[in-house]
Amino acid sequence: MQRSPVLCLKSVVFSVFLTVAGMLHEARAESVPADTAAVEASEQKRNIIQKLVAYFSDANKVHEPKKLDFSIIGGPYYASDTKLGIGIVAAGIYRRNLADTINPAGQFNIYGDVSVNGYFKVGIRGNQMIRSGRDELTYDASFESRPDQFWGIGYDMARCDSNRTDFKRWRANVDMAYLFQIAPDFYLGPRLLVDYLIAKKVSRPELWQGQSLRTFTGGIGFAVMYDSRDNVFNAYSGFYARLDQTFAPGFIGNRYAFSATEITLSHYQPLWKGCVMASRLHSRFTYGDTPWGLMSKFGGSYNMRGYYDGRYNDKCEADLTVEFRQHIWRRNGAVVWAGIGEVFPKLNRIGRGPLLWNWGVGYRWEFKKRVNVRIDYGFGRGQHGLIFSINEAF
Length: 394
Known about the structure:
The chain is mainly beta. It contains four helices and 19 strands. The chain has helices at residues 12-31, 36-45, 48-57, 155-158; strands spanning 9-10, 68-79, 83-94, 106-115, 120-130, 135-150, 165-183, 186-200, 214-227, 238-248, 258-272, 275-288, 296-297, 313-314, 316-329, 332-344, 356-368, 371-380, 383-390. The chain is globular and about 60 Å long.
């Protein structure tokens, strides 16, 4: 079974080690009386491993407010397609005004992967509340070069294993929006998309159905958002709704002129002590001459986890996921989820094609306060895979 680079076991041993070591560190800290001089002397004698354990053990504790709280986690991983590699994720939480403890802090994640077979990816994603929470800037920028797989466009092509072909993907992508608050919890603003994609070392170009293997897309549009979540990164309650409309017309240099409408609806409901039910309905519809690299798809680290990222793709896509998140003990938690999804060529074909199922289980470790490291194992129809990431899938 082939797996995507994101569907791999990144830093599992490393994360488990940190979790166990953190538990021991916390238990020891509770049992030893505080003595400032003794603690300072002990810290001077600690070796690098002890300092690392202390660093991760204290990462989620409430400290004195500071403008930037920055932490790093990472380690080795292995996957059948990317081979041996190293993955690193850095999380930053920051505030411009330390006296403002009401509005959410800004957050960014810097991520990077590199492996022995030539795969590498670097990127940054995050959001920032501006003007005392009245505006919000969201962004995601990345660059990657990786061995990839392609089955063609549409469900009928993707379900046929014999269509699978290997190629090398080279991609640069920037996706950002600036949202103005126009009412409580309600935002509206412009959106920008820039995407440059190249398929190299292609042996079966017929699977691309005549499209160019090199595409550039510049898109503009708008986003509308309603957000009543109690926390942007790890919600326990609230509702989130967002509409993204993107236009990529030919007169601004797009060879493939198209439009895309993306809708996301998420709800978070506490059920019992330590348990949250999170549900998300997501859909993306494109119209016009959609380039192959920007077809609607699922799989990977965020929706319909367990499927190869992009194997199932078409002009339109819809998926529904329900997840139960249970805190277990100290910084440890677990999740279980189930979902369904489909890809289809036109909006009026929604609900008429074959449905693909998805379910999985996961482990959560609180890296920072309300910021989780997650390890998920997802199952789909004929596919499965492991995911290591930071923050919840939605």
